[in-house]
Structures are given as C-alpha cells and as structure tokens.
C-alpha cells in the first residue's frame, strides 16, 4: 500500500527516522519533536537532510509540549493513508500513536536498527517489511545529525605506495614493531623527506627493513654516519606513513572494507558536528556502515591510550550515531593505563589488539561487526 503521509516522532538521534522516510518516500512528511533544549536543531537537521534525499516530498515541522498536544497533532494528520513512525520517540508517544492508529485506521511502523528489521503494525496485525534497498553511507549518518564531512583520507589509501608498504609491514611485523618504536623514540631531527636517527645496535635491523622499502621506491637512500643513521624518503606522505600510526588506520580500513555487510567505509574522517559552525571540527580514524549499523573506530599505534582516549571515541561516536553505534578501539599493544579494559566495557567499547596475526584480527573484527 502506498502511504501519502509519514508522521515521524523525533528523538535526539534519528537515523531510523531517516531510513524510514527514504524507504516510504511519501508525498508528505510530518516531523514532530517535543519542545526541549535542542528540539529546534533536531527538526532543522532532519528537514535539511530529508529535503536533499526526498526531492518531491513536502516536509512539515511541528512541536508539542504535552501528550495532549501530540494527540491533537496526530488527529490532524492521521487517516487510512497515513503511516506513523514510532522508531524514535518514547513509550508515551508510542502509546498515543497506537490510539490514533486504532481510531483513524492508519498504520504504524517500527525499525529495529540493530536487527535491521522493519515492522508494520495495524489493526490486522504485524508484518515484516523488506527495506534492504535503502542504503545510507557515512556521509549520510553525519548529515542526519546536522554535521558535515570536511575531508577524508580514503582515496589516499588506494595508492600503490601505501599498499606496497603495508604489505611489507605485515610480512615483517616483528621487525617493523622493533624498528618503528626505536625510530620514533630516537629521532634527532627531520625534514619533509628525511629523518636522522641516533646510531645504535638498532642500525642493522633498521637497515634490513628499510632496504625492503627501497625495493618499492618508497625509501630513496639509507646513509650511515658516525653517530647517526639518515633515512631519505620518496616524499613527505611516505615519511608520515612510517613515523605515525597511519599504517594502522590503513590496515584497519582494509579489514573492515572486506566484511560482506559493510557498504561504505571512510578513513581519516574530519567532520563538523554542526555544518553551520565550521570552527568545531572533529576526527575519527575509521567510520563504516554495515547494513543499517554505524561503526566508529579509533586506532592507537601505541600502548599509551587511556580513559581520555576512550572518552573521545565515546563522545564522537555517539554524537553522530547515538547509543546504537558500535565503538571499537584498535591498538598494537595492551594499554598501560589502569582499569582501561573495565572502563571500555562499561562504555560499550570493544578493544582489539593487533599482534601481527592478520587472520585472527580479521576474525575478531568480523565477530564485532556481526554481533
């Protein structure tokens, strides 16, 4: 049955509302929000998003203070060609919607984001609806909450240089971990294309590894002097890839991208929480969409992550995905901080430590995405 009007009862996070609006594609959408601190922002953000997604749909914004006002609004718009979306809202608004459904012979719809199921409810009973054809990307999820992607590094990771370097890193992981940590802790100076490292017994393993990078033309020269070892790189991007944790973001991106349910994934995402406030910019290392599930990942190529790292991931992820978002912290070593694992568990954050075993990491990541 084609529905002329879709009534959405909004909450703070409304990805399910956006999905249902796109799925139903009605002639008119009525967005209703309870008047509280940020209700006008909620209405504005959803209207802005749906205006771009539903070009021929008329969108109406309405607010209410009391349950009686909500009842009056539903009575104004409800008829047999109306669908009331109760995916957001609260128990009381759902009860009021149920009363309107019975009185005006309309239907209700509920989307279970975690289970990726949609249920239509009316006087005849409950029916499951197929909405597999509706797919949102990372950009959409950020836009639903009024945000905007400023830049991302996804395209950069498609270059041969990055893939070739990552292959060498994974193929010589123990050597990589040893030399990488030494270089980071004993760099004397650096330019855009070179780093000077204090000479030591580590010279031999460093030269062994970086000669492999020379075979793919990412390292141009290894120069050994009396008290230092000088590494010359192809360009500044290659130097940053080796000296920072970008390689771990790249690896995590590849593992997530291979999952059968993942339809979109971006890495190095810098975004605005509010596209009207360009001064408030945030960043997440990897953001993915698996079905109707948003996944936010922070990558730490260190053991120096703590409660602050968890709080940052928790705040950024829930700002764009609400309480249903999946939060993962990927690290190369267990944390030295006290109670980090316990705090992560309380915050719903999964910690994944990559020890060089690619198959094990992929299995663990797949389990988290599938859960």
TrEMBL record:
<feature type="domain" description="Card1 endonuclease">
    <location>
        <begin position="239"/>
        <end position="363"/>
    </location>
</feature>
<dbReference type="GO" id="GO:0003676">
    <property type="term" value="F:nucleic acid binding"/>
</dbReference>
<dbReference type="InterPro" id="IPR011335">
    <property type="entry name" value="Restrct_endonuc-II-like"/>
</dbReference>
<protein>
    <submittedName>
        <fullName>DUF1887 family protein</fullName>
    </submittedName>
</protein>
<dbReference type="Pfam" id="PF09002">
    <property type="entry name" value="Card1_endonuc"/>
</dbReference>
<dbReference type="InterPro" id="IPR011856">
    <property type="entry name" value="tRNA_endonuc-like_dom_sf"/>
</dbReference>
<dbReference type="InterPro" id="IPR015093">
    <property type="entry name" value="Card1_endonucl_dom"/>
</dbReference>
